[in-house]
Amino acid sequence: xxxxxTAAARKPRRSSGTKRAGAKTAPQPKASEPQLxxxxxxxxxxxxxxxxxxxxxDITPESLRGLYRDMVLTRRxxxxxxxLQRQGELGLWASxxxxxxxxxxxxxxxxxxxxxxxTYREHGVAWCRGVDPTNLLGMFRGVNHGGWDPKTNNFHLYxxxxxxxxLHATGYAMGVAKDGADSAVIAYFGDxxxxxxxxxxxxxxxxxxxxxxxxxxxxNQWAISEPTEKQMRVPLYQxxxxxxxxxxxxxxxxxxxxxxxxRAALERARTGQGPMLVxxxxxxxxxxxxxxxxxxxxxxxxxxxxxAKDPILRLRAYLERESxxxxxxxAALEEESEALGKRVREAVRAMPDPDHMAIFDHVxxxxxxxxxxxxxxxxxxxxxxxxxxxxxxxxxxxxxx
Length: 401
What we know:
globular; 13 helices; six-stranded parallel sheet
């Protein structure tokens, strides 16, 4: 070793977080240009795709009208839920506005025996699985923990904890493989959740055990107020490569492309080829939830640019171009959507309040002394309000004599 190299070895190294004044930043490697699967342009023109056209070859004009109806009714339900929250009927609501194509396209790609693990925004997928929209609202009103039986629709309860459902989906898919079934599992999550450790662990386990699971990420470009460029240095779908399985980016505002890509991913899973990551590149046109104000962190011009790519307007343009739907169809659908909004509104307002004591019923299967004590204390606390009300009524009656 030379004197110069010895001195260099002994010289304290600079922290990676500091640099000399005037020093140039090292060039960062550029990510390859994302390949976006698209079958319908924003103007509603059909685009040929040799790899995925076969997965929508069975789509008829009736099927197209069905996809359009799904998106319109899902948006109408979503708008009604937002209004109900603003009127004090719901505690919170997470809107899917702008993400209808990603959810309806992927939801209609599923078979009945496939199993879905959603987050808390998959109202369109729930619609496709036959879950009554009013059941989704019970949790947001605070009257239940999810108003449907997951086994009935193969649609799990909503998951509020960010990213945890990907682990549930992976474990379930590993079980499906051990049982020898040919069904698939799909896990929904957002771009923000992709930064969670749970998601990385799910990717690892699913790859190692070749689990029949599709990871469907709706990249709406905003994790509440954080844009994707603050979360990742490469396109999201490319993350799958590091775990040993493929990823694909699809136009999340193109319902046909989402249908085709999800069908392909599910087929891969069912035939023992392992997991796949689908990144639906879309945009959240509304707030993250009704407690959020996106005007504080997003430019109006950005939303306006994405409104021109509206998934519903895109499919309508295609339907009209292909003469696959007439004005009578659109008018009838408008009436149906208004009827749905009215039904949802009336159902929410008619929901009974839950039994206050039910919270203690299923904490332990065989009961617990501490829970019994807490139940008694809470019952006494509730009764004190009744006593106060009764005392107040008696006092008023006494004053009236």
